Write the structure tokens for this entry.
Amino acid sequence: MQVGIIGGTGPAGRGFAARVANAGHEVLLGSRDAERAHAVAAELVGGRGWPVTGCANDAAADADFVVAATPWDALIATAKPLAGSLEGKIVLSMANALVKEGREMIAVYPARGSMAAQLQAALPGSRVVAALHHLPAAQMEDLDSGLEADVLVCGDDAAARLESCALIDSIAGLRALEVGSLAQAGPIEAFTAVCITLNIRHKAHSTLRLAGI
Amino acid sequence: MQVGIIGGTGPAGRGFAARVANAGHEVLLGSRDAERAHAVAAELVGGRGWPVTGCANDAAADADFVVAATPWDALIATAKPLAGSLEGKIVLSMANALVKEGREMIAVYPARGSMAAQLQAALPGSRVVAALHHLPAAQMEDLDSGLEADVLVCGDDAAARLESCALIDSIAGLRALEVGSLAQAGPIEAFTAVCITLNIRHKAHSTLRLAGI
């Protein structure tokens, strides 16, 4: 599959790009700065021969399957101008609205309940899915980290959820768990504040597992 | 330790009562209906000789350590009249504000961000801690269920968090993880919607684990 990553040069985008390329998918690693995207793509690939191409965000939006990995407060401003290219496509949002307060991350609640719902409202012709929120970015990028994590997947389009789960399940170390509608994105995104705060307090790189499923 | 459970006759309260009694603690199992509390306590204990006593909620509020296990929409109305007895004490809130929508549970957000924050505002002299939200009630009550779950603990009083963690760690199958301030209660409570919706979709009794800590 061809996967475009909007805002792919940050930690979340890089980590996902490495795993998805390693799984054999073609990656269009987008950035608002195409030069920077080229440099990050080259650094990520190293000598591994992965099909990762750095490009501008609008070129990444031309991919079959698009992941939005920008900082949360740049998500809507970045995605909205790309609405034409994203029409009819799955757009997977990794965004979490969080602010730092001392040694804690605090969840903030977008007016529509989640960043994914904000994105769905900005891209009414796209099929927004929310997933990949709780993954430790450094462990994603390091393919030898032994990462084993469950990935919660939600969205209002059932086929888009299933396609997203299939892509995630093709990635080593990840297990996709379909949750339900986009209404679940609010709690899923906000829970990232808890995961990161736990990591700060316990000096850990925790991963979320749902036992018994 | 003497543990009082306000609203202890519902599934969450019963499950917690069984585990905490089995760990050797004395339980005052409260209900607005003391007769019902007596009956549930007798049924829970069976022939096991646990020190579980059914009582009215105001008697449960006299315990050293108090857990609030009422339905979420009865929490404030039940706890506020007990403010005098609860003054200076730890009050551990298990409440999650959730509504059912078809095959999903939907998180709803109390005006102060969480039910625990609503409780703290109603009991300004108490030390409110939020924990025990994600546990499957039936598996809690069945001591042979093989339950192994992580319990996220938050609150604004550090000593109250630590005491709560010690109580939880004394219970077989549970590991307490201190998260941070009461601001974390919103995401922790809301995430229960995700856990229950997963269980409905996957016909499972999932438990939350944080690997890597």
Chain A has one domain: 2-202. Chain A has a mean pLDDT of 97. Chain A touches chain B through 40 residues (CB under 8 Å). The first strand of chain A starts at residue 2 and ends at 6.
